[in-house]
Amino acid sequence: MLSSRIGILGGGQLGLMLLQAAVDWNLDIHVLDPDAEAPCRKIAPHFTQGSLQDFDTVYNFGKDLDVITIEIEKVNVEALEALEKEGKKVYPQPSVIRQIQDKRIQKQFYAEKQLPTAEFILTENREDVSNYISFLPAFHKLGKDGYDGRGVQRLTSADDLDKAFDKPGLLEKAVPFEKELAVIVARNAKGEMETFPTVEMVFHPEHNLVEYLFAPAEISEEVNAKAQEIARKTAESFQIVGLLAVELFLTPEGEVLINEVAPRPHNSGHHTIRANATSQYEQHWRAILNLPLGSTHAYGPSAMVNLLGEDGYEGPAVYEGMEKLLATPEVFPFLYWKALTKPFRKMGHITIMDADIASLKAKADFVKNNIKVISHKTK
Amino acid sequence: MLSSRIGILGGGQLGLMLLQAAVDWNLDIHVLDPDAEAPCRKIAPHFTQGSLQDFDTVYNFGKDLDVITIEIEKVNVEALEALEKEGKKVYPQPSVIRQIQDKRIQKQFYAEKQLPTAEFILTENREDVSNYISFLPAFHKLGKDGYDGRGVQRLTSADDLDKAFDKPGLLEKAVPFEKELAVIVARNAKGEMETFPTVEMVFHPEHNLVEYLFAPAEISEEVNAKAQEIARKTAESFQIVGLLAVELFLTPEGEVLINEVAPRPHNSGHHTIRANATSQYEQHWRAILNLPLGSTHAYGPSAMVNLLGEDGYEGPAVYEGMEKLLATPEVFPFLYWKALTKPFRKMGHITIMDADIASLKAKADFVKNNIKVISHKTK
Predict the structure, then answer these.
(1) Residue A28 C-alpha, separation from nearest chain B C-alpha, in angstroms
(2) Contacts with A261 (C-beta within 8 Å, 6 or more apart), sequence order
(3) What is the number of domains present in chain B?
(4) What angle do CA B294, B298, B301 make, to 5 degrees?
(5) Cβ separation B297–A330 shorter than 8 A
(6) Cβ-contact A32, A10 below 8 angstroms
(7) Same domain membership, residue A263 and residue A225
(8) How confident is the model at residue B203 (pLDDT cuts 50, 70, 90)?
(9) B259 carries a ligand binding annotation
(10) What would the pLDDT profile of B211-226 be if each residue is shown by its tens digit?
(11) Which residues of B touch A350 (CB under 8 A)?
């Protein structure tokens, strides 16, 4: 399987980290991305510039390859289905991408498979939403094309109705939660599964913002077992081949609910490059090449901070504070080969390790306060 | 420093691992290698095919770069000196490469700096060697151009004189030794130094062959302190900027002697990619970019097995047993992007980790016995 010709749809940072992991096995990788300056451009063994959403482009890209995978869900699934019919191995399977691309189908799938998730109502358009005022507060989610926080609106009362999407979507009950957790599962074509340890998103004590990711999550053994079990059951229900990142809510009552899933490497697994025996990226290759899955054993507690473009700056990226970070033991910045910064653009992440938890958290705070992505051209 | 234009002379496996480590920091790397199919070819951001030993080629390669480094010592040092004079940062410094390229100068340097090494006599040609029969048994080493075991002959008595080199070289007393150790030191331009934990080469109990590398070395605290101290002192004596791999002999009397050194990443540090907080490759970048050096803390004991082309096979490489290896927890094969195998060619290495030492050694044996690089075209 190591000599397969492999394609990745998408050449962003997840693709970059997949390429880095593939160096160990000499994987012959072809990357397709619409952006000539995509993060993967300079180090991909083969790079094709082209649309991920155009049937012909995706089909032609894949037709001389053996295995095709994705690092972003917004791709032309019809082309992937055509390639699958011709005997190409397409992982995750196009049918799974289709189910997950549409949040309406995704939610119905959980209901059908009795996987725990917040209550929801399907809505057809904005007017339809007005029929469910008593269901608020709720999140109105666009069925398709939501991405990275876009396509979600919180509706508290009838006054917010103008914020509702005028397209097919769903209302999801706003559940109070104590923690946001995530579990990444890998599953190969033989049906073997491995999960990574449960992680948690740590929120700022005052602002309602994710401050950093922390692994392993500080939760009871019981909650952890529940989270791991739900993640495995979800991956198995989808029969996915590849990675499934399962984002979860932990309610104050100790209930664990699925928030949403991603059928690919995920932001909540970047730290595994440094902290775990097998990274999520290597595990993705193992899963889609139908190889034995690797040990997900963690060598110690870790944290991860996203490095976002500072508000107010747009232009060639300058990383202020890198030297301070590099001078701190076991602090590892990873930059995404993006020449230009924009406010809140994901420019990199920083992994932090420390055997001592208090010191780990102190280092995470230090990191957050001491690095900034700016530009000498202000916006 | 992260935005420097960086050049590597040599595009072999060490260059490949340097490139992989450079992904984290978006380093803009240019690679020069005479072989159009060099391991680095496919993933280097920039690749130039050309001789490493031709003045003009090396000079022209370096003249538009900011920082130039090597992954092999056999390069045109005059061109590097010219580049250094023009203000390029050339690390390791050309003067250090010159000292190390010639084993005669290297040995005299140890004597002058009072660094412990086996007794030696400089010889001019084969006839000259015959003057020192009473000094045998000894190793006759070629001054220049010895590499990877070539350029060394063991002379036991006058009968072996025809094996001596008829060029400038040196006779080195054959010291009995208990273990071969190695310490990799990093030093940046500020003079900061960090060493990696001492490792040992484990020999086959019957054949006199290195079986695998083991980290940390199983030696007394006293011997370890001596090895670390000698390595630091050697790096400081050379005033090297970059990595210095110091290979050492441990004698039955507990004496630690320098065998030889390499001013670059080294075979004895491959395991640091998986086992240590900072790998030797990342540490090399930190050192030559004058950044703070990283923690060399090991997350646990590890072993490393070289993957050599099986004797009797020459042609397109086939890796027999990869799946068995991948099914063993914490066994990580790394292949060198070499399409063709040859007897004893370095085709890759395998890193093995295990918190339990007995189990680590058992896994190293399992690995050695279960992977083979062959070709379906026999020699």
Answers:
(1) 9
(2) A100, A106, A234, A238, A244, A245, A246, A247
(3) 3
(4) 160
(5) yes
(6) yes
(7) yes
(8) confident
(9) yes
(10) 899 999 999 999 999 9
(11) none
Q: CB of A169 within 8 A of CB of A104?
A: yes
Q: Are residues B53 and B131 in the same domain?
A: no
Is B329–A19 a contact, with Cβ atoms under 8 angstroms apart? no
Residue B109 has pLDDT above 60, yes or no: yes
Same domain, A168 and A184: no
Q: Is residue B44 part of a domain?
A: yes
Question: Which among B173, B192, B211 is the end of a domain?
Answer: B173
Which pLDDT does position A203 carry in this prediction? 76
Q: Looking at the structure, tell me whether residues A269 and A331 fall in a common domain.
A: yes
Name A85's Cβ contacts closer than 8 Å, sequence gap at least 6. none
pLDDT at A209 over 70: no
Residue A2 to residue B353, Cβ atoms within 8 A: no
Residue environment code for B98-122, b if the CB has 16+ CB neighbours within 10 A, otherwise e = ebbbbbbebbebbeeeebbbbebbe
Half-sphere exposure of A281 (CA within 13 A, CB side): 23
Residue B123 resides in a domain: yes
- Per the structure block, which two tokens stand in for B45? 């951001």
CA closest to A27 among chain B residues: B337
CATH code of the domain covering residue B315 = 3.30.470.20
Same domain, A51 and A138: no
Integer CA distances (angstroms), A255 to A103, A112, A117, A225, in order: 22, 19, 10, 12
Considering only CB atoms, which chain A residues are within 8 Å of B24?
Answer: 20, 332-335
A195 in the same domain as A152: no
Residue B236 has φ and ψ, to the nearest 5°, of -70, -40
Residue B15: both structure tokens together:
């260059």
High-pLDDT (> 90) share of chain B, % = 93
Q: For tokens 């040995």, what's the residue?
A: B107
With a cut of 60, say whether residue A379 has pLDDT above it: no
Q: Which residues contact A271 (CB under 8 A, 6 or more apart)?
A: A199, A213, A215, A302, A303, A304, A351
Instruction: Work out the widest C-alpha separation in chain A, in whole angstroms.
Output: 58
CB contact under 8 Å between A25 and B294, yes or no, is no
Contact at 8 Å (CB) between B251 and B175? Answer: yes
CA–CA distance, A201 with A270 (Å, rounded to integer): 13
Residues of A in contact with B326 (CB under 8 A): 286, 291-292, 294
Query: A303-346 pLDDT, tens per residue?
Result: 999 999 999 999 999 999 999 999 999 999 999 999 999 999 99
User: A189 in contact with B at a CB cutoff of 8 Å?
Assistant: no
B70, β-bridge pairs: B9
SS3 assignment, position B301: coil
The answer to the question of whether B103 is labelled as a binding residue is: yes
Residue A23, chain B, CB below 8 Å: the answer is: yes
**B27 to chain A: nearest residue by CA?**
A337
Q: Output DSSP code: residue B174.
A: -
DSSP string of A139-190?
EEEESSS-BTTBTEEEE-SGGGGGGS-SSSEEEEE----SEEEEEEEEE-TT
Query: Which range of residues forms the domain containing residue B152?
Result: 119-173
Domain end (from B138, B173, B208): B173
Judged by DSSP in three states, B259 sits in: strand
What ipTM was reported for this prediction?
0.95
